[in-house]
Write the structure tokens for this entry.
Amino acid sequence: MTATTKTGSGLVLTVLASSQFLMTLDSSVMNVSMATVAEDLGTTITGIQTAITLYTLVMATLMITGGKIGTIVGRRRAFALGLVIYGVGTLTTAAAPNLTVLLIGWAFLEGVGAALIMPAIVALVAANFPPEKRAAAYGLVAAAGAMAVAAGPLIGGAVTTFASWRYVFVGEAFLVVAILMVLRRINDVPPVRVRLDLVGSALSVASLGMLVFGVLRSGEWGWIRPTPGGAEIAGLSPVIWLLLAGALLLYVFMRWQTHLAETGREPLIDPKVLRNRQLSGGLTMFFAQFTVQAGVFFTLPLFLSVVLELSALQTGLRILPLSVALLLAAAGIPKLWPRANPRRVVRLGWGAMIVGILVLVTGLDPGANASIVAVPMVLLGLGLGALASQLGAITVSAVPDSQSAEVGGLQNTATNLGASLGTALIGSVLIATLSAAIVAGVQLNPDVPDSVKAQASTELASGVPFLSDTQLEAALAGSAVPQSSAAQIVDVNSDARLEALRVALSIAALIGVCALFFTGRVPREAPSTSVTADP
């Protein structure tokens, strides 16, 4: 089909980028508002973390099915349906009187809506932009999502500080209405009469659900050995059983898809698509990018808000250079170098991200101030922008336009799985390192009484909260710990926090280095200027 727009690329790009921004904003906003929301709803931080977890879980498990529904009913109709469901979810969340209603509105309704919207965004870009302009369009749409992660703390901190967290969700509802009002002015992709593979949908939801949920609970339950006092099954953590069951069901799902394809029926995913070298390379890069991105954005706000004790608004401002650099790279690279070698751009992007993380690691010390994050934020933004400028066009150009929604489902599944793994893995490494460092520091300190050491070995070994010096001093002041011992414990906590942050960020850098080994699947030539023909 000819990719032209009815009203110009500006409106289309604004609508699709705004939608991508909207889908990504919630979790990053809530990360800086968790304490306030928990108090407002009469629940705990764990309850709010559960809502964040389930939102990611619903999206990750339904993306493939959402992409297929877009093929059946039409991309624009699926997009509109998703927006309506999402809008109802945001209003439900804004009015939530308790955690149960919050879970229904945010985790379920918004998650279902996002699963319909995000695959359709990929297909609508392909339908509204000619091939030579798709790289720039995909880059800006991807940049909008990454910017939501970076700008979320700033938006959430400002709105929560000066008004109420509920206004964030009210504002999202208004944005949904605005997008719906102009949606008809965007070119659609006609629906295709195919049957939805219900068995495959159930298998994909169950398998991915178990995998994502297992990873997300690893910090609380442990990966293999159960945490002290935690849940266990046959002497092992429930996480390993969830991962094993999820992997087994995923194998069954793939065998079922192959069976449908071989017997001439309609699979949820064409197995041949997954054997496409260019597509698999793009999906691998998406997965790795979001793993590192989520890990960094889990760790960095802890340094700014806990170690340096900045406010939510100040934390958001310190992250802002990343958003600016990301947007400049995502928009500038396709515009200035439209025929750039995608593999080289992706490798340079990973290089900038790795260097940015390592600069941040070396700058973390007890005397550090907030200015040390400026250069790393710019490098990370340039790296993320470089990847954003290439990956969307790489994945979609690998298949015919008729399969763009299916690829959209796979792409967003990869990104959500990566984000889940990054948060869980980096978070569990950080907490484990913090616990071990604090216990060791207390036990080896001769100035700490034996009674305090015994308490540390039993309570702190099971995991310690990431506390600021001010919070810890206040907690110790209300206990029977002698003042001299309290000062020693505060110093141990301060050193342990920095060690935990360095280790967690180093793991993120290591994942980035590992990703370089898979960049050989990224093509050297920019996506062809000729439209991929449908079979």
Notes: The CA atoms of residues 96 and 102 lie 5 Å apart.
